[in-house]
Amino acid sequence: MGRTRVTLADVAAASGVSITTASLVLTGRARELRISAEAERRVRSTAQELGYRRSTVNAGPRAGRTQTIGFVSDTVASSGWTGDMVKGAVDAAYRHGFMLFVGESGGDPVVERALADAMRDRRADGVVFASMYTRTVTVPDGLYDGPAVLLNATPATRTAAPSVLPDEVQAGRSAARVLVEAGHDRDIHLIGAGPGTCDVPPHGVAAAERLLGLREVFEEAGAEVAGARWCPKWTQEHGYEATADLLRERRPKALVCLNDRLASGAYQALTEAGLSVPEDVSVIGFEDHPIASWMRPRLTTVALPHYELGVRAVKVLVDLVVRGRGARVPMTHRVPMPVRQGGSVAAPRG
């Protein structure tokens, strides 16, 4: 009988460290994350004792599939929206007969590379590289070694990996239609960015696309966007400050807040000014953050479909795995963002 192959996971377990730490040590990158000399010595010694050899998966043809998928996330996978994305990915993987391995990088490029290598070391059939917020990413070299899909991310340079993204342009259109259909055609103000698609915070991929959709529908309907307040961060504090500053100059009929935390801050500023939502001012947001359901009245918002994003990413990846590298697949897959109706939009008075 042949000798059982020693895996990176075996070395990590025997050394008492994580797979990421073991991978960093054995690829010569221990000092990049200041891994202790003792841990480095222990991992190298254990690897030698166990007879571990780094996988050379790509040196020749693979002997069948392992029915496993790697999922590398930049955020804690058990929290909030990321948890929903992972759940969607897990459920989709199960339905297709695959197991999902999840790793968290904290957004650290060194850890991202280590995790990508670790997933390939475990002979994962493919890897989903996920971002909590839509952003442009540098794709780790390890993802070029086999099928990969970018989730909620676009590549900084050209890559063969397709992207699965929320349809933010459509979301902007939907938000604008909610206001137009309620009768709003003037005194509409944007909170967070705009009015141009270039007037966005750094790395504001979602902002630019939301503004594009908003502007398209407003222009078609002949609705006036009277102004916009740029915010360096999309937090409740900045939403409050931007709205309070606006109210010192004029009273809007409607506010389009580029996310729900901005909308929460706007609510507070409106309340302090003696104005009611939606009787005096209509407010709409984006993302369907948990805070939206606690606002009174409940915020009308356009939801980020985190669960569906996870499902779609795995489906696209499984298609690549099953059909092989030569498979022709669209490079960008857009997932619809549904409107979550609340009580924050009404016909304008007067």
Automatic annotation (TrEMBL):
Annotated GO MF terms: DNA binding
InterPro entries: HTH_LacI, LacI/GalR-like_sensor, Lambda_DNA-bd_dom_sf, Peripla_BP_I
Domain of life where this protein originates: Bacteria
Domain HTH lacI-type: 6-63
Pfam families: LacI, Peripla_BP_3
Keywords, ordered alphabetically: DNA-binding, Repressor, Transcription, Transcription regulation
Name the UniProt record assigns to this protein: LacI family DNA-binding transcriptional regulator
Organism: Lentzea roselyniae
